[in-house]
Specification:
Blueprint (H helix, E strand, L loop, with lengths): L16 H8 L6 H6 L4 E5 L13 E16 L7 E10 L2 E8 L13 E11 L2 E5 L2 E5 L11 E5 L8 H15 L9 H6 L5 H9 L4 H33 L9 H9 L7 H14 L6 E6 L6 H13 L3 E5 L3 H14 L7 E4 L5 H13 L4 E4 L13 E6 L9 H6 L16 E6 L5 H8 L3 E5 L9 E6 L4 H13 L3 E5 L7 H17 L7 E4 L5 H12 L5 E4 L12 E6 L7 H8 L9 E6 L5 H12 L3 H12 L1 H4 L19 H17 L9 H11 L10
Parallel strand pairs: 4-6, 9-14, 9-15, 10-12, 10-13, 11-12, 13-14, 16-21, 17-19, 17-20, 18-19, 20-21
Antiparallel strand pairs: 1-8, 2-3, 2-5, 3-4, 5-6, 5-7
Helix pairs in contact: 5-6, 6-21, 6-22, 7-9, 8-9, 10-16, 13-21, 18-19
Bound molecules: adenosine-5'-diphosphate and magnesium ion (MG).
Length: 705
């Protein structure tokens, strides 16, 4: 039987059904998938030496048989000593002692009689030789004979039932036969121009590199492919949006502008005016808007969003605003409803918590056009929401949603009766308080336009941030009591803990109980968390806003969007557990009124990283500077939530180190799509197929030409 890329691994004799079943647990079911499962790195393996030839002070590799093992130095939990595992390895020339600290569980893995290959730094110990914490590999009969030369061995993402080593030998069994079967989706001259290896060569060098440089070249090609495919997808989508779709051009006049502004309880700042002008210009055209509005926490993005939605309403269309949390959606609904009081604008709130009957009526009115503005959460982009004529869709706090989420929003446009045959789509505005470096914005969100609100509205007093240790907690709460006595309101934030909401709520209850019994006896303390019913949440927020609650003890549900100007004190418990962006967002809940605000971080930094985060947050309140710091500390993949988005676009490319490659892929994709908008040329068939397979679904490319 001749091998193809779709040959099941079970049918490959050299792999065997047992190993094939184990590989299947990682989704490696056929030859193609196995080849595409690339190592994350390589380990240099020294040439093996006989034990007698080992020189102390060198990294060495040796193989032999285990003759004895023991566990030593276990002192029990109280002292925190986890003990060590020792083993003796012999070959026909001598004896080597091995020791692994804090890994006594190895007693179940390494046993007398096992044959092992080990590598590590050899040291002399007394008369003998020892390697501490060696890398090891248990050998079996099938293993290849000792290696006379140093070489690079791949380290694969492995699983419980299958080790990197087993993946390596399975790959070795098929690699040479499989490589000729791989089609390159990029033409040879194109690759030559960019000094990229062809795909067969890239996979060969990935799985079996001659040296580190070969691995780097292979990685560069595969990373480029990932970046190029996403960029092609985004460019294709953008072109489609601009040429094959249209959005309702909205009317704009001095009268409309005046009308809208009359609704706002304040005058827009020059920065807000600038952004409003950019948006109004976009919305007046029939090319669908795709604009990112960035501005620091508290810079006043909401009112800009409301402006855009009211432009839609002024032209008898609809506006929608999607927020990442129910609490924020409720806040927006409350504050925007306030602004619209006494107008004819019909506005509703739709979240996952909206009762069924009400939901039915809202859906019906949205679909018939009896509703002008719909505020909500993800619930807005579920299939059942149909807008009669959605002209402006706003996604607030975009960084909280993931990369793929926007695509689904667009398709919600309703019926259209004009003679233009192109389907309607709304103008889309994306709001974010996490300033995104342009290259990265492009790479993850596509080629969008960017507006920036610089600075904050006038009259803000600075926020002082203090970092204290848990030992000072009593002092902090005593001081809180004084501030409350002086008429100020405060938030106390407790962390959400991953291991379940229950322990988290107990934390919250503990703090509430303590404050009620001690420092804040006789004051109004309330709690806020995600498990409360929406009605209770609304009631509590209203009472907090009216000043009837003094201190709100909350989980991170208050992280985004909550806006109570009189609150001027924030205490964050276990601040070391929060990310930098999160701390900045949380702190942004204070400093919104005319009183100077204080934010106290109670923290015990557990890692150097958490110490750096806390230093950064104390040093500045400037969100743009903090975003840069955050990038520095964590790297862009983490910062922009590509991990949790589900559409995690890259397995190999790394936005931290591949920025140049990203620029190249961006330029290449742009030129490519200009020349061939739908990749319909016969020579592009493989590329197109791979593109749709990788990104078709989450970018919604199914309908693209
Ligand atoms: P964010 O950009 O974080 O979404 P918001 O839109 O919630 O900020 O605005 C923060 C606060 O600033 C709100 O209380 C809002 O009413 C107030 N605000 C916004 N614009 C102005 C302005 N031009 N003048 C005075 N206050 C403003
Ligand atoms: Mg906001």
């Amino acid at each position: 039987m001749s091998l193809t890329l779709t040959t099941p691994l079970r049918d490959v004799a050299a792999i065997g059904t047992g190993r094939a079943d184990a590989l299947a647990t990682l989704g490696l079911t056929n030859v193609g998938r196995l080849i595409a499962h690339v190592p994350t790195r390589h380990e240099r393996h020294e040439a093996e030496t006989h034990i007698a030839d080992i020189q102390p002070g060198r990294i060495v590799s040796a193989r032999g048989e285990i003759t004895a093992t023991r566990v030593a130095g276990v002192r029990g939990y109280a002292t925190g000593r986890k003990g060590r595992f020792e083993a003796v390895l012999i070959d026909h020339t001598g004896r080597l002692d091995l020791v692994w600290f804090n890994q006594t569980y190895l007693r179940d893995t390494i046993m007398p009689g096992h044959r092992l290959r080990v590598q590590g730094l050899a040291k002399s110990r007394g008369p003998g030789l020892q390697i501490a914490n060696p890398r090891f590999e248990i050998l079996d009969q099938r293993d290849e004979p000792p290696q006379g030369d140093e070489r690079y061995r791949p380290v694969y993402p492995a699983g419980e039932r299958v080790s990197s080593h087993e993946i390596e030998s399975a790959v070795a069994a098929v690699l040479e036969d499989a490589l000729p079967l791989i089609d390159d989706h990029l033409p040879a001259p194109y690759l030559d121009e960019r000094a990229l290896p062809d795909l067969r060569e890239a996979y060969r060098m990935m799985h079996a590199p001659r040296d580190e440089d070969a691995f780097a070249q292979a990685r560069r090609r595969l990373a480029y492919d990932e970046l190029l495919l996403l960029q092609l997808g985004l460019q294709m989508k953008r072109r489609h949006l601009r040429h094959a779709l249209r959005a309702p051009p909205l009317r704009f006049s001095g009268a409309i502008d005046r009308h809208i502004r009359e609704r706002f309880p304040f005058t827009l700042t020059p920065e807000q005016d600038k952004v409003v002008a950019e948006i109004a210009r976009d919305l007046s055209a029939s090319v669908p808007t795709n604009r990112l509005v960035q501005g620091d926490v508290g810079s006043g993005k909401t009112v800009v969003a409301v402006y855009a939605m009211l432009m839609a309403v002024a032209s008898e269309h609809q506006g929608a605003l999607m927020a990442p949390t129910e609490l924020l959606a409720e806040q927006h609904f409350a504050s925007i409803s306030d602004m619209l009081q006494g107008s004819r604008v019909r506005i509703e709130l739709l979240t996952g918590a909206t009762p069924a009957a009400q939901r039915e009526s809202i859906l019906a009115r949205t679909a018939s056009g009896d509703l002008d503005i719909l505020i909500g959460t993800h619930a807005l982009i579920t299939g059942s929401v149909r807008f009669a004529s959605l002209a402006v869709a706003i996604i607030d706090e975009q960084h909280r949603f993931g990369v793929g989420q926007r695509a689904t929003f667009r398709v919600q446009a309703g019926e259209d009766h004009s003679t233009d045959q192109r389907p309607m789509t709304p103008h889309v505005l994306v709001m974010t308080a996490t300033p995104i470096p342009r290259t990265i914005a492009i790479s993850l969100l596509g080629d969008l336009d960017v507006s920036t609100i610089n600075g904050l509205p006038p009259g803000r007093k600075p926020i002082t941030t203090r970092l204290v240790s848990p030992g000072q907690r009593d002092e902090v709460y005593a001081w809180l009591a004084q501030r409350v006595a002086a008429g100020e309101q405060a938030y106390v934030v407790v962390p959400a803990i991953d291991t379940g909401a229950a322990s988290n709520l107990r934390d919250l209850r503990e703090v509430v109980a303590r404050l009620e019994q001690r420092e804040l006896a006789g004051r109004h303390v309330a709690s806020m968390h995600g498990r409360l019913k929406p009605a209770s949440r609304e009631r509590i927020m209203a009472r907090f806003r009216d000043g009837r609650i003094d201190v709100l003890v909350a989980t991170t549900v208050i992280e985004v969007g909550v806006d109570v100007p009189n609150a001027s004190v924030m205490i964050i418990e276990h601040a070391e557990r929060f990310g930098l962006a999160q701390l900045h967002q949380l702190r942004g809940r204070v400093g919104r009124g005319d009183r100077p605000s204080v934010c106290v971080l109670i923290a015990e930094p557990a890692t150097p990283e958490s110490a750096r985060r806390l230093d950064a947050i104390v040093a500045t309140t400037d969100g743009f500077k903090l975003a840069e710091k955050d990038l520095e500390i964590r790297g862009p993949g983490e910062v922009f939530g590509t991990r949790q988005s589900g559409a995690a676009p890259f397995k190999i490319a790394d936005l931290g180190r591949d920025i140049d490659l990203l620029r190249l892929a961006y330029r290449d994709a742009k030129a490519w799509i200009e020349a061939s908008p739908t990749l319909a040329r016969p020579a592009e068939a493989t590329l197109r197929r791979r593109l749709l397979k990788t990104h078709g679904r989450h970018l919604g490319l199914g309908d693209v030409g």
